[in-house]
Design a protein that fits this description.
0% strand, mainly alpha, 3 helices
Length: 74
C-alpha cells in the first residue's frame, strides 16, 4: 500500500525527472516535446504539498483516504 507521503514524493520527483528529460539534448526531440507537453499542466511541488495540507485539514469523512501529504518524507 502506498502511503500519502510516498505518493507525494513520487509526484514531485516525477516532475523533476520530466524536466530533466525535456532539457536533455541527447534525447530525440519527440521525447523532449512529450515531456514538455506533460509538464504543461503538471502540479508544482508547492501545489502538491498544499493539496496534502488541505486533505490533512479536511473534516473526517470528506475523503476516505488521503491522496497526498504535506510532507515528502515520513
Amino acid at each position: 500500500m502506498t502511503l500519502p507521503y510516498e505518493r507525494t514524493r513520487s509526484v514531485v520527483l516525477t516532475k523533476d525527472f520530466l524536466t530533466r528529460l525535456s532539457q536533455d539534448t541527447a534525447l530525440p526531440e519527440s521525447i523532449r516535446d512529450e515531456a514538455r507537453q506533460l509538464l504543461r499542466h503538471y502540479p508544482s511541488k508547492h501545489e502538491v504539498l498544499q493539496a496534502g495540507r488541505n486533505e490533512e485539514q479536511s473534516p473526517g469523512g470528506v475523503l476516505s483516504q488521503a491522496v497526498f501529504s504535506s510532507k515528502m518524507e515520513r
